[in-house]
Design brief:
The complex is a heterodimer of chains A (about 650) and B (about 280). Chain A is α+β, with helices and mostly antiparallel strands and about 650 residues long. In chain A, about 25% of the residues lie in helices and about 30% in strands. In chain A, a hairpin with a 2-residue loop joins strand 19 and strand 20. The longest helix of chain A has 23 residues. About 5% of the residues of chain A have low confidence. Chain B is mainly α. Helix content of chain B is about 80%, strand content about 0%. The two termini of chain B are about 35 Å apart. At the A-B interface, helix 1, helix 3, helix 13 and helix 14 of A face helix 1, helix 3 and helix 11 of B.
């Protein structure tokens, strides 16, 4: 027993020390040997060291190196970009994932004290040369070529000492007269005071706070000449109380994202995270990798949010973007918290949504009446997302791989390409005619130019129609596939296919292109691609929005999805020039060419999801297809190998 | 005195158990608890609903053609590699015996291939054998077996050689006087004497053979030819897809089969031993 205690006691002491050590460091976000500057957006936390080393951290605290920024003077972040004013008189814009910063020489002659980035605009706290009074200016972020002082009714824009921008609100403080103002740009892009200015003494840093009882609050750190305190200020009355949040000694700076405040301490060498807790403990619904930012929503998202908040005013919608798709897939499959509503871009995912659904990670959305009711109204469009009577996801965007035809070349070649549907056999019959024309006229026309993906459209369409990942079946060993594959190899040998390359000319009769609806207004002629005997659906890139089975907010998540595919939200998307388009009869634009519109609509209602099942397709495009084209394997061997591989991958 | 000795022994045992306590805890934490967790996962529907489904997962997976194929391939490939290595070791040791070679100086060289990183070895093998995920059955098994022989048979040679070295020379001399040839001496005298070393070599080779997945993956990828598809491929592919239920069922099944085989072999060995006695 004595020996036992002699062993246990030191072990206990060591464990306690470890516990204390780890708990003391638990709120430090980043520690650096050198002083650093930092910026915060809802997507990333950025740090810029004295040595120029720049990093950004995503919501999972995954650290990524960004291009070095030397001589950084002021920094701010918005969405996935960092904006930096340098000592050299430049603005650098660094976007997460980019390898270089873009430089813009500053043309304005301003003494810049602070910058706050917003959507396409910079709010800067600056003074004109020779002037001592600092004002808030709105400026363009590409070199401050244009700038003007903000002029808001009821607010004196002079001697401002601190500003902060968050979620469409700007707060501004003047230490000279104690005026604290909260300005909103949500309804009026010129800005409007939310409440009359209030007077609060001795503040240094301010930041937009939370809403409590319909009144927006402001966080602030006071002047360092007095004991540093983190304040929660009622922006309507100016009442100041302690925020009741832990913060480090000698805190400076005050920035925020949707979840936390961030301050520097330890002479700027330590970045400290202060989680925000609101009194009414509002719940959050996280939209993971959503194509759209909740803090500055496009019209469709805005309408969806408004509809959502009508039913769930106490639930906060939060966007969060993870650049590493492996982390996203792992988070979903591991049932990690914070993965409520997930957007899966099928060409950019580690695990296709269909396999996540098969594993039980995603909900069947037909189980939710609110979604079913809306989905039934667009049933023909969401067919590719329905598997065995279960709705796996709702679409964010659907972009079909369209075909266009060079009508001039069609006339010159004196051939007629069917416009109302045709087969692959008919497609290959065209090849013979073009080949003959080329030989006779010594020309070099191509039958098809396909530059869109790693596999030609012909194989992509076959994969998408005949591989059923959910039920684990594939049909490569059909007589039709082998026969058509032989013809494909033949036309490749005859140099009639321009695949994954561009000879700079416009010598192809047919072109494959992924087209959003807006581009169908261009002067091109769309036509329906050919189809197989049983496989007659057209591949489309779909960004699917799914509901995580492990989410504690499934009802709320499902309701949001129903708002997203509501008629009001879909109709709003007409005017946006963006990728993807979901049509309903009310949303058809009259500007589109009737023929193209008809083709596009038809394709949209007959799409098949272009899942990229890496284990299955990687060897096809990396190994098998090149071997097929180079004659190292026959079409039959190609088909048999694909079938064997599919049986293994899908049958595991 | 006897009582004092017994007390002393009891005291030592108590101290030993106390000192051994941390190691027991670590063993439980690293080995037993993960196995127990695996067993639990194997009986759940999925990691989200976590509903208990008993042996339903086992019934599903044991009906999966690829799973059964993987299990049989694992044992077949392991047996081929182990037997080939054992025969090679026996043959090389015979050469050492015949030539009277004192192989002490080359023992280190024999074990050296095992020290080389698999990635380096497989890079050379890929260049020589042009392996890929489309390598056929015969070429694949040949390449894999040859790699195993080159890398791991040295260990078996060392173990057998050390056993042979300890055989008193008089036994061989006596056999020679009686007219036995070198082969007969080796097969009927030396080999039976070093049974324990052979058993140890077999166990070590089997252990290496079951870890051959690493080299197989590097040579042939996640989805090799069906004849080369092992249970570790199955588990690894499902692990990447985070299908923890499939991984758990496969690992529990594999452990159960291995333990059963080990038990049966042990029983057979000890029964044989008892009969001889």
């Amino acid at each position: 027993m004595k020996l036992y205690m002699r062993l246990i006691k030191p072990l206990l002491i060591i464990c306690s020390l470890l516990l204390v050590a780890t708990s003391a460091k638990s709120e430090t976000y980043v520690k650096s040997k050198n002083r650093m500057m930092y910026a915060v957006s809802n997507s990333y936390i950025w740090t810029v060291g004295e040595d120029g080393k720049t990093y950004y951290y995503d919501s999972q605290k995954v650290k990524t190196m960004a291009p070095d920024i030397s001589d950084a003077k002021r920094v701010s972040a918005y969405s996935n970009s960092l904006y930096c004013v340098t000592q050299q008189g430049e603005i650098l814009i660094v976007t997460a994932g980019s390898e270089e910063a873009t430089h813009y020489p500053i043309t304005a002659d301003l003494d810049i004290r602070q910058i706050e980035a917003a959507d396409g605009i910079l709010y800067i706290l600056a003074a004109e040369q020779g002037s001592t009074g600092f004002q808030v200016y709105a400026a363009d972020p590409y070199g401050i070529r244009f700038y003007f002082p903000l002029s808001i009714d009821g607010w004196e824009n002079s001697n401002i000492s601190s500003i902060a921008y968050y979620n469409g609100y700007l707060c501004a403080y003047s230490s000279e007269n104690g005026n604290l103002a909260l300005i909103s740009f949500l309804e009026d892009t010129n800005g409007k005071l939310v409440y009359p200015t209030v007077t609060v003494d001795d503040l240094q840093y301010v930041q937009v706070g939370e809403t409590a009882g319909d009144i927006i609050h402001i966080y602030a750190l006071n002047d360092p000449s007095k004991q540093i305190q983190l304040w929660d200020i009622n922006a309507l009355t100016g009442e100041k109380i302690s925020a009741g949040l832990p913060f480090p000694e000698n805190a400076m700076g005050l920035r925020r994202n949707s979840n936390a405040l961030f301050v520097l301490s330890n002479e700027g060498k330590e970045l400290y995270e202060i989680p925000i807790h609101t009194q009414n403990e509002s719940r959050t619904l996280t939209l993971k990798n959503f194509i759209g930012e909740v803090s500055s929503p496009d019209p469709r998202l805005k309408i969806a949010m408004e509809l959502f908040y009508q039913k769930y005013p106490d639930v906060e919608l939060v966007s969060d973007f993870i650049t590493d798709v492996r982390v996203l897939s792992a988070g979903v499959m591991a049932g990690a918290p914070g993965y409520d509503v997930i957007t899966v871009q099928e060409n950019w995912t580690n695990i296709p949504s269909i396999l996540m659904f098969k594993a039980g990670a995603l909900e069947n959305l037909y189980d939710y009446e609110c979604v079913k009711e809306k989905a039934d109204k667009i049933s023909d469009i969401i067919t590719p997302l329905v598997i065995d009577g279960q709705l796996v996801s709702v679409p964010n965007t659907i972009i079909p791989f369209t075909w266009s035809i060079d009508t001039e070349l069609e006339q010159r070649l004196d051939i007629s390409v069917p416009r109302d549907g045709w087969s692959w056999d008919m497609f290959f019959d065209l090849a013979a005619k073009i080949k003959e024309y080329n030989e006779t006229n010594k020309t070099n026309y191509y039958l098809i130019h396909d530059n869109q993906d790693v596999l030609p459209y012909f194989l992509k369409m076959y994969n998408d129609n005949y591989v059923d990942a959910y039920n684990g079946t594939a049909a490569y060993n059909s007589e039709e596939f082998v026969r058509l594959l032989e013809k494909w190899v033949e036309i490749c040998k005859d140099n009639l296919v321009l695949f994954r390359t561009d000879d700079g000319s416009n010598n192809a009769l047919l072109h494959v292109k992924r087209l959003p609806y807006e581009e169908t207004r261009e002067d091109i002629t769309l036509l329906l691609p050919p189809v197989f005997e049983e496989g007659n659906r057209y591949p489309a890139r779909i960004a699917s929005i799914c509901l995580n089975s492990n989410s504690p907010m499934k009802e709320e998540g499902a309701y949001f999805l129903s708002c997203w595919i509501s008629e009001e939200a879909l109709s709003s998307y007409v005017t946006i020039s963006n990728n993807g388009y979901l049509l309903n009869s009310a949303a058809v634009s009259s500007n589109a060419l009737e023929g193209n519109q008809g083709v596009w609509q038809y394709m949209l209602k007959h799409t098949v999801n272009d899942y990229y099942i890496g284990d299955l397709y990687k060897d096809q495009w990396q190994t098998l297809y090149p071997q097929l084209i180079n004659g190292k394997i026959t079409p039959l061997q190609y088909a048999q190998t694909c079938q064997r591989r599919a049986e293994m991958v899908l049958g595991e | 005195m006897k009582g004092k000795a017994a007390d002393a022994l009891s005291g030592v045992r108590k101290k030993a158990s106390v000192i051994g306590l941390p190691f027991i805890v670590i063993f439980l934490g690293i080995y037993v608890m993960p196995m127990a967790a695996s067993l639990l996962y194997s009986m759940q529907d999925n990691r989200f609903s976590k509903s208990f489904v008993g042996i339903k997962n086992y019934l599903n997976i044991w009906q999966n053609r690829l799973f059964l194929h993987a299990l049989s391939n694992t044992f077949i490939i392991s047996m081929i590699c182990v037997i080939a290595s054992m025969l090679t070791a026996v043959l090389i040791c015979f050469c050492f015996e015949c030539k009277g070679i004192k192989a002490n100086s080359i023992l280190a060289l024999l074990v050296l291939p095992m020290m080389l990183p698999s990635i380096a070895v497989t890079t050379i093998w890929k260049a020589v054998f042009q392996t890929s995920s489309f390598t056929g059955r015969q070429e694949g098994i040949f390449a894999l077996t040859l790699l195993f022989l080159w890398k791991y048979s040295g260990t078996a040679i060392v173990l057998l050689y050390l056993g042979l070295r300890n055989i008193p020379e008089e036994i061989r001399e006596a056999a020679q006087i009686d007219g036995a040839g070198a082969v007969r001496i080796y097969l009927q005298i030396s080999i039976p004497i070093i049974k324990m070393h052979i058993s140890l070599a077999l166990v070590v080779l089997l252990m290496f053979a079951l870890r051959l997945y690493k080299e197989s993956y590097l040579l042939f990828g996640e989805y090799p030819d069906e004849s080369l598809y092992m249970i570790q491929h199955y588990m690894s592919n499902h692990f990447i897809r985070m299908n923890s239920q499939n991984v758990s069922v496969a690992s529990v099944s594999f452990i159960a089969i291995s333990l059963t085989l080990y038990y049966l072999l042990s029983r057979a060995g000890s029964l044989r031993l008892n009969r001889k006695v």
